[in-house]
Amino acid sequence: MKNCLFVYNPISGSNDFDRDEINEMLEIKVPGFTPYIIETTGENDEEMVLAEFQKYQPDLVLIGGGDGTVKMVAKSLKEQNANLLIVPMGSANGLAKCMGIEMISDAWEAVRDFKVHQIDAILMNGELCLHLADFGMNANLIKKFEQDDGRGMFGYVKNSLSEIFSSEAKKFLLKFDHQTIEISAKMIVIANGDQYGTGAIVNCKGVMDDGKFEVISLNPETAEDYVKMTMAFMKGNLDELECIKTWSVSSCQIDNLEGAEFQIDGEMMGCPDSISAKIGKHAFQFLTGKSFASCRTS
């Protein structure tokens, strides 16, 4: 029988599965695998995951948590050629949605289908990014969410309206492909995936295995701009708006001229003066769901 390792973040999102419930669920939903469960603690998790992987040599690693948990496990197993699958138990689960895993039931279906895709990653100032990083508006929202007592999607929604209307444009210097561009924007996104956990599609050109990532500038100024942008997030045609600019690159440098907040995969990174980003093509192997659209791969 094959082995599978289930890495579970017990404080991720609003889920409250205990160890016995997870074990029972795995026995039913992942037949043909002997499950081994480990819980993250926030201390030496990367070392623990690698040690357990080397101990059990699993054919599949299930990650029960949000984007931060997925990133931690991926970093720890970077050199192990592991088959990874996200079981969405986080607050937003944006990366899972990009992989076609909308609900936990989609993860069990992905185990049955066992379709593995080679997925790119982005390296930024030595930090791994699997999904989305950004300066400005969304990073400010995540910072407020972290300071809030509540967890889950409600925390995002509660703070979003005030952030949208209070955010100010910041100046940035973009350097790529022998170009230097100075722009003002309320948000700069560095995108491997195509959408946030809310379902907002921000990277209409996003392809997750093409050796490219997108740099997206968002600078809505009027109420009409905000309305159009909100509609475009839902329709997936954000790149058609005049206040949006998109560049597809394999590497870039972004100078943060006015100290905007920065986040990577939901983790706050402070206000760096500059970030250098470079693609890592086919860095990881992920099982994907049936809704993983063909346009998201090259």
TrEMBL record:
Keywords: Kinase, Transferase. The keyword Kinase applies. Residues 1-128 form the DAGKc domain. SUPFAM superfamilies: NAD kinase/diacylglycerol kinase-like. It comes from the Bacteria. PROSITE patterns: DAGK. InterPro entries: ATP-NAD_kinase_N, Diacylglycerol_kinase_cat_dom, NAD/diacylglycerol_kinase_sf, YegS/DAGK_C. GO terms for molecular function: kinase activity. The keyword Hydrolase does not apply. This is Diacylglycerol kinase family enzyme. The lineage of its organism: Bacteria, Pseudomonadati, Bacteroidota, Cytophagia, Cytophagales.
